[in-house]
From TrEMBL:
Xref: SUPFAM superfamilies: lambda repressor-like DNA-binding domains, Periplasmic binding protein-like I
Domain of life from the UniProt record: Bacteria
Alphabetized PROSITE patterns for the sequence: HTH_LACI_2
PANTHER family attached to this UniProt entry: ALANINE RACEMASE, LACI-RELATED TRANSCRIPTIONAL REPRESSOR
Designated name of the protein: HTH lacI-type domain-containing protein
SMART domains: HTH_LACI (SM00354)
Length: 335
C-alpha cells in the first residue's frame, strides 16, 4: 500500500523548509510567509494529494480548522447555495464546515451551539441571527449571514434590502399601481424589519399612501405563514411586495382562494430569487440576492475574525438586482 504524502514531501516539491510548508498550509499562520511561497506550497500539496493530520494540528495549534454553520430552515431553498459558498470559502483555507439546522427553534439552536463548541469549533457562521441577539458570551469568533443584529456588534454579511425593496416599489409605481400591499417577514428578524421599513420609505418617496390595513406581518419566512398573512390583507390592493419568495408563493395561494388572478388582478413581487422562482406559474418577479457570494464572503469574514479576534465588527452589504417575470402587469382598472 502506497504511503500517504507527508509535510516533508510537500516541502521538498515546493523547495521550502518543512516548517515553512507547515506555516503556509495552516490558515492561522499563512500570513507569515509570502503569497508566492504560500501558493507554491498549496499547489504542491494539491498535486501530491496531501491531507493535513487535523488531530496533530489541533494538538499543536489548539485549533480544529472546523467552523460551525447553523441555518434556520433546511427546506428553504435560499440556503443551499449560501452554504455552498460558505463551504468553498472555508475549504480554500483548509477549513471544513460542521452543519446544523434549527427549524427556527431557539432552544435547538442553543443545543447546537453547545454541542459544536464541545467539538472545539474555531468559530461560527449563523444564518439564525435575531435583531436583539447579544454578542457571544465566550467571545468565540462569529459571523452572521443574511441577517444582522440591531446593535451591529457581530460581524455580518447581508444584502441591500433597502435598494431591493425600493426597486420593487419603483417598478410597481411605474406600472400605475398605487394601492400596494406588503406581506412582511417576521419583525424580530432584520430581513423582515429592514424590508418593511424600506417599503414604507419607498412608498413615501413615490408619494403613495401607506395604509396599515395593506400591511401584514408573517410569523415565519414560509409559504404557509405567507398565505395566512396574505389572507389578512385589505382586499383593495392591486399589487403585493412579499418579504421573501416563499411568502410570495403563499400570496399566490391566498389570491387564488379569493378568486383573484396574478397578475391580472394583483401583481406580486418576492425577494431572494430562490432556485426555481422562474418556474412558478406565473414566473415570480423578485429581487435577486447573490446567494453563493454571500456565503463565500461570510466564510472570508469568519477566517479574518479567527485570525484577528479583536478587530471591530464589519458589516458587509452586497448588491441586489430586480428580476422581472410574469407575476407583474400594468394596473388594470376594475370593470
Amino acid at each position: 500500500m502506497e504511503k500517504p504524502p507527508t509535510i516533508k514531501d510537500v516541502a521538498s516539491l515546493a523547495k521550502v523548509h518543512a516548517a515553512t510548508a507547515s506555516r503556509a498550509l495552516n490558515p492561522q499562520t499563512r500570513g507569515k510567509v509570502s503569497t508566492r511561497t504560500a501558493n507554491r506550497v498549496l499547489e504542491a500539496a494539491k498535486s501530491l494529494g496531501y491531507a493535513p493530520n487535523s488531530a496533530a494540528r489541533m494538538l499543536r495549534t489548539k485549533t480544529s480548522s472546523v467552523a460551525g454553520v447553523i441555518i434556520p430552515d433546511l427546506k428553504n431553498p435560499v440556503f443551499p447555495p449560501i452554504v455552498r459558498g460558505i463551504e468553498d470559502g472555508l475549504r480554500e483555507a483548509g477549513y471544513m464546515a460542521l452543519m446544523g439546522n434549527t427549524d427556527g427553534d431557539a432552544e435547538r439552536e442553543h443545543e447546537l451551539l453547545l454541542a459544536m463548541r464541545g467539538r472545539q469549533t474555531d468559530g461560527f457562521i449563523l444564518a439564525t441571527g435575531r435583531r436583539d441577539d447579544p454578542s457571544p458570551a465566550d467571545h468565540v469568533p462569529t459571523v452572521l449571514v443574511n441577517r444582522r443584529t440591531d446593535s451591529g456588534d457581530i460581524p455580518s454579511v447581508t444584502n441591500d434590502n433597502n435598494a431591493g425593496v425600493h426597486s420593487a416599489v419603483g417598478l410597481l409605481a411605474s406600472l400605475g399601481h398605487t394601492r400596494i400591499g406588503h406581506v412582511a417577514g417576521p419583525r424580530e428578524l432584520s430581513t423582515g424589519w429592514e424590508r418593511y421599513r424600506a417599503f414604507v420609505d419607498a412608498m413615501a418617496a413615490h408619494n403613495l399612501d401607506v395604509d396599515p390595513a395593506r400591511i401584514t406581518f408573517s410569523t415565519a419566512f414560509t409559504e404557509e405563514a405567507g398565505y395566512i398573512a396574505a389572507m389578512r390583507l385589505q382586499l383593495d390592493v392591486t399589487a403585493i411586495i412579499a418579504g421573501n419568495d416563499l411568502i410570495a408563493l403563499g400570496c399566490y395561494s391566498a389570491l387564488e382562494e379569493r378568486g383573484l388572478s396574478c397578475p391580472r388582478d394583483v401583481s406580486v413581487v418576492g425577494f431572494n430569487d430562490m432556485p426555481f422562482a422562474d418556474r412558478q406559474r406565473p414566473g415570480l418577479t423578485t429581487v435577486r440576492i447573490p446567494h453563493y457570494e454571500m456565503g463565500f464572503e461570510a466564510a472570508r469574514l469568519l477566517l479574518e475574525r479567527i485570525a484577528n479576534p479583536a478587530t471591530p465588527a464589519k458589516r458587509v452589504i452586497l448588491p441586489v438586482e430586480l428580476v422581472r417575470r410574469g407575476s407583474v402587469a400594468p394596473f388594470r382598472q376594475a370593470t
